[in-house]
Description:
- 37% of the residues lie in helices and 15% in strands.
- It is an alpha/beta fold.
- It folds into two domains: 3-242, Aspartate Aminotransferase, domain 2, CATH 3.40.640; 247-376, Aspartate Aminotransferase, domain 1.
- Strand 5 (166-170), helix 7 and strand 6 form a beta-alpha-beta unit.
- The structure holds pyridoxal-5'-phosphate.
Amino acid sequence: MDFSTKAIHAGQKADSATGATITPIYQTTTYTQEALGKHKGYEYSRTQNPTRTALETCLASLENGKYGLTFSSGCAATATVLAMLKPGDHVLASDEVYGGTWRLLAETAKYQGLHVTFVNARNAESFVKCVGAETKLIWFETPTNPLLSIIDIKAITEAARKKKVATVLDNTFATPYFQRGLDLGVDIILHSTTKYIGGHSDVVGGAIVTSSGELYERLKFLQNAIGAVPSPFDCWLTLRGLKTLAVRMEKHAENAEEIAKWLAKHKKVERVFYPGLKEHKGHDIAKTQMSGFSGMVSFEAKGGFEAAKKVAESLKVFSLAESLGGVESLVCYPATMTHASVPKEDRLRIGITDGLIRLSVGIEDVADLIEDLGQAL
Ligand SMILES: *Cc1c(COP(=O)(O)O)cnc(C)c1O
């Protein structure tokens, strides 16, 4: 089955008890057993819930993976993966990771006794040279937030395999519609389903997909042990969003490309970051590992902080808000919003300047979005 068909049908057979076509919200904590230990595979809803199973099965299928696990947030998924490690273990992380991921890796992992180093992963070769004897995980995302840098997935996974280090790819920005990391050798795919997968800015969630039985068993154990699981209603909302992922992503990418090209020609714009533009540094690699360039566009307004503030506050169709990936367009000022937890010197070193603005391009009429940007600039 192809992507759009799987998004609508994988894990979502009609309900066996009632024939309900849409997976019901199994709003129950427990399941009645016929006899001691005789049940239908469900015992307690932290451990398993049928609405969650439908979502986990569908996500696994869309990533071409064997196993899916969902969580109450993307950060809960990240924390659960890190809980696999033991004191003394090393994590090699890309220096361009989501602010909340950075906070977990830089601030809380040390209490677990983990060593984390953040290295530029745009140069895959020098990045993987930082793998040491204690390295247990390589952590990266591509395209990155908010600079939309592209990291060569295959170059990293091939080197990691040789060194027997597991890789985690945060696929939130591309979604499985445009990029499937397991096919390129990644061990664990991670998502904030809060973003494009849910797609309507109304539910927070996270997910992990893997094809390794061993990693799945360990992560499934930790999912239940830690218990940062999504509610049945959250699973249902996410599953509902997922059904239209393919059509939404096509429109997000189409609008984003048009906006990126328009911004690139604007006299008050210093630089545009969109992997779909030929001038983008990662464009050639992006073409090999993505089937489309998704809906995020960042740009630097000429005039630094004052100019960026003016633009962000003058937009009318774009809402000034955190988060991304919903059907509505959002604008964000990374320096003080998404990356507020990253120290200024680190932020500037990776290129998140004071003039930088990030757009999550929605699926509205693109002419309205361009007109809005025009008046704000
Ligand atoms: C939002 C986000 C996360 C964290 O997910 P939450 O659902 O907010 O906990 C992780 N990675 C990326 C790339 C994100 O955009």
